[in-house]
Structures are given as structure tokens and as C-alpha cells.
């Protein structure tokens, strides 16, 4: 299923030229992978009051006050895709911090969870938020121009996780 609803006629200009107020919040995101290893992504709405409108990004959203992040992700996937999971079915993968001190705000966290779906297609997923959804092979997804940059980095880290080792392990560069 791809794009439903109206889209901005010049998304790049609207994205870069928007003066809409943005409100950073702690957030969660799913590195949502099908059994054939494709990643399921959301085409974000063209709403200029959200970060990276009209870009492909991970499913997820804001963490409510006092809500544990894993429960926030479970709630968001139910709202956005009609997928019912337990917190035990989502595995924390990584977390990014964003410092909004320049705007008089503080540190906001975006926590990524690895989530495997036991199928090889998007049939049965019901889009509850966003302009569309699709599944992509990682190489194709990471070469696309309109992917939320921090989501792209988390996806790359997940895809390349077998190649990334701790410097404290004494790993040497093979070059």
C-alpha cells in the first residue's frame, strides 16, 4: 500500500521553508522487519508541524509522561498498524539523544526497538497514521533520498550490526 491523500506539491521547499512550530518529545521507533528481511516504513504525512514531513521513516511516536518506552512502542504499533505485540516481543536496539538546549529545551531521546514480523508481506497491516507504508530491502531503502536521516542511520546500524564491534574488544581494521 502506498501514499493515500494529498501531498505537498513541492515537498522539499515546504519542508525547508516551513515556519510551523515543532515540539520535540521523547520518542520510540520500530526497526520493523519482515521475515524476508525487508524493513516496513511509513511515508510520513505532509503535515508541516511534524519533523520530516513527506519522508519515509520508522513507525513509532512520542512517549507519554510516565510511560515506559517499550510500552509506548507497543501502543504506537497498535495505533499505526493494528499490530498487537507484547513488550517482550520488542527488543531495544539503540538510542539517540538530541540536545534542544539551543531552543530552551533539554535532551530528548529516540529509542529504537528491533521488531520482527512473522510474515514476508505487508498484507494484514492496517495503516492508521501516515500517508502510506511499504517494505524495502535495506540497500534500496538506504539509497533513497527522502528517508528521515536519524532513522536511516539506525536502520543502517541494524543492517550492519554484525560488522560493528566495540573498540574495547581490541578489534583491528582489516585494511
SS summary, helix count: 4
Q: Work out the radius of gyration.
A: 17 Å
Shape: globular
Number of domains: 1
Largest sheet: 4 strands, mixed
Secondary structure layout plus pairing:
Elements: H1 11-17, E1 27-33, E2 39-43, E3 56-57, E4 59-62, H2 69-81, E5 91-99, E6 107-116, E7 132-136, H3 138-141, H4 149-159
Question: Can you describe this structure in just a few lines?
Answer:
By secondary structure, the chain is an alpha+beta fold. The protein is built from four helices and seven strands. Strand 5 (91-99) and strand 6 form a beta hairpin.
Outline the structure in words.
The chain is an alpha+beta fold and 175 residues long. The protein has a single domain, classed as Nucleoside Triphosphate Pyrophosphohydrolase (Alpha-Beta Complex), CATH 3.90.79. Helix content is 20%, strand content 24%. It has 4 helices and 7 strands; from the N terminus they run H-E-E-E-E-H-E-E-E-H-H. It has helices at 11-17, 69-81, 138-141, 149-159; strands spanning 27-33, 39-43, 56-57, 59-62, 91-99, 107-116, 132-136. The strands form 2 sheets. Strands 4-1-6-5 form a 4-stranded mixed sheet, sandwiched between helices. Strand 5 and strand 6 form a beta hairpin. Mean pLDDT is 90; it is low at 1-9.
Amino acid at each position: 500500500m502506498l501514499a493515500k491523500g494529498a501531498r505537498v506539491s513541492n515537498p522539499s521547499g515546504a519542508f525547508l521553508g516551513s515556519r510551523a512550530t515543532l515540539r520535540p518529545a521523547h520518542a520510540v521507533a520500530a526497526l520493523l522487519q519482515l521475515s524476508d528481511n525487508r524493513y516496513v516504513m511509513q511515508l510520513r504525512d505532509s503535515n508541516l508541524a511534524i519533523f520530516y514531513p513527506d519522508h519515509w521513516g520508522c513507525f513509532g511516536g512520542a512517549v507519554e509522561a510516565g510511560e515506559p518506552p517499550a510500552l509506548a512502542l507497543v501502543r504506537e504499533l497498535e495505533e499505526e498498524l493494528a499490530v498487537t505485540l507484547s513488550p517482550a516481543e520488542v527488543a531495544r536496539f539503540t538510542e539517540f539523544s538530541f540536545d534542544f538546549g539551543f531552543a530552551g529545551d533539554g535532551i530528548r531521546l529516540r529509542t529504537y526497538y528491533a521488531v520482527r514480523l512473522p510474515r514476508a508481506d505487508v498484507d494484514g497491516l492496517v495503516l492508521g497514521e501516515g500517508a502510506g507504508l511499504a517494505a524495502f530491502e535495506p540497500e534500496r531503502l538506504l539509497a533513497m533520498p527522502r528517508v528521515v536521516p536519524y532513522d536511516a542511520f539506525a536502520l543502517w546500524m541494524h543492517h550492519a550490526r554484525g560488522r560493528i564491534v566495540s573498540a574495547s574488544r581490541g578489534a583491528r581494521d582489516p585494511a
